[in-house]
Amino acid sequence: MSKIEWNENTFSKFAYLSDPRISKDGKKVAYVLTKANLKDNKYENTIVVEEVEEGGRKFIENASMPRFSPSGKKITFVRANEEKKTAEVWLYDLSSMSGKKVLEAKNILDVSWNEDDRRILITGFKRRDDEDFVFEDDVPVWFDAKGFFDGEKTTFWIVDTESEEVLEEFDAERFSSAIWHGDAVIYNVPHRINEKPQFFKFYDVYLYRDGESEKLFEGVSYAAVHSNGELVLLYGKPKKEKRSEHNFFYLWDGKDVKPLTEQFVYNNGGGKLDEKGNLHFTMAKEGKISLYKLERETLTPIVEDNSWVMGFDVSGDGKVVLLKETDTRLRELYLWDGELKQITDYNGPIFAKLKTRPIKHFRFKSLDLELDGWYIKPDIKEGEKAPVIVFVHGGPKGMYGYYFKYEMQLMADKGYYVVFVNPRGSNGYEEDFALRVLERTGLEDFQDILNGVEEFFKLEPQADRERVGITGISYGGFMTNWALTQSDLFKAGISENGISYWLTSYAFSDIGLWFDKEVIGDNPLENENYKKLSPLFYAKNVKAPLLLIHSLEDYRCPLDQSVMFYHVLKDLGKEVYIAIFKRGAHGHSLRGSPRHRAKRYKLFMEFFERKLKKYEEGFDVEKILKECKTEK
């Protein structure tokens, strides 16, 4: 059997599944199948509709956001019109697979069906869209992956799919969301305090019916996320002091709010109700994202093994369709109806020819805590030693664990130990664990990483302490910058979209006005933390070569963060390089164009190859990219 090689293009061989949906009667499931086309430098999305009982498949090309009608006889989806730069909502009859366009708008965020099997609720947004300038009198002025707000308002359309007419239309604040609740619409609006929007912390919740809005809740920290027509599922907390607090689920019956999942301690993810009012929800716990069913007081695990559930949906009678991913296998579709059954195996033939390496778990003591760490061991001959790359997740409330990380498998195949831990501040533990990093970012959490690496060295004597690299994105990029200024352990670093100066991040980032004030501290213009915890002011300590990778359209950790660090390090005579991708938001490592991603992987591999294996001076990017094949 011929083997598939791990390289910068291997990602394009995989099929990526997303947005699983199940019909109300549980007889059909749908999902989006995405392939990366390196030759044409684009992603190709296809909606796949599976007949659960009969086993047939239907395909809808150039489509995303599948939504079954309540009868299961129809499906809506969104199709991009590249020529007009708009999004189109289409309706297909599933028996004939014939369809029609029911609405076209510039920006569509979500679509959901009313129980009448006829009306749909479409959520989108509108802007001024002047061709010469943007104007804003609110904050922030921009947002990652969305660009400049330019007076943006969320728009809700109630559309009749038969007549293709907009029956009702109303606007709300940016970042508002809505669900059907019987024949009414419940929508969540960011609450304001002293005219400042409290994004992702406080909400006002309204009920809209026949052109009139009634306020249900004011200044709460939960939002309405699902309804079965009688009960409304709320997600968040009654009142948060910090955005970093955990989220749980609550039930509103029209009178009282009842807590559902607070007793389970760990941070909750997605949640949905079935017709009986049973809750299905995900929960992050110690490197796993598991799926549960809560029926009255009884909690039933649906998926609780070493894996991540990456999306799910529930039928009226409680069948569940879900995407499950492990450390060695990309997500595939599963169906649960009392038992878990795998439905798809798109990537099985690829993995049959591609070696993957399982992660090895270990626990370690760090200061006052017991923490989780993992590593991947490369193929290594007895008596030899191998270099090490330490990965740091984003967040700080991110989480490592049992999911498929492309760069880790890639570098393990190239002969590196890969080490990663969940330091304090990570998701997947009790709420206090997540809050411990606030106003102390880079202090104890960095010690946690160092202590995890030391424990790893005890476990793997073939790991070469003299050849250790470090890398990460976002908070992981900050920690890479920080690590090279605070420790001599690391002999090379790749910092991606990371922070180097917290004060400019506070003032420039799309979320800086609240995120940085929570993570670093209040009163940014006076608080010494904004200098004390910034790698920029310790640049003279850097001894290891550093590659900074950043995307120009990142508004979460804006480009100034890497450019400042690069300029200062260069001025100090340090070995540093910067690669600025001209397109791509904060998540460019996963959502950049296929060629963009291939070039990034190539830079990533070659930098560590030259600095941790070959000990080469310089970094000849022209020579490196000539070796990068971006066509299949």
UniProtKB/TrEMBL annotation:
GO biological process, one term: proteolysis
Protein name: Peptidase S9
Organism listed in the record: Thermococcus litoralis (strain ATCC 51850 / DSM 5473 / JCM 8560 / NS-C)
This protein's UniProt keywords: Hydrolase, Protease, Serine protease
Keyword Cytoplasm carried by entry: no
InterPro entries reported in the protein's UniProt record: 6-blade_b-propeller_TolB-like, AB_hydrolase_fold, Peptidase_S9_cat, WD40
Source organism superkingdom: Archaea
PANTHER family in alphabetical order: DIPEPTIDYL PEPTIDASE FAMILY MEMBER 6, SERINE PEPTIDASE S9 FAMILY MEMBER
Start and end residues of each Peptidase S9 prolyl oligopeptidase catalytic domain: 403-614
Molecular function (Gene Ontology), one example: serine-type endopeptidase activity
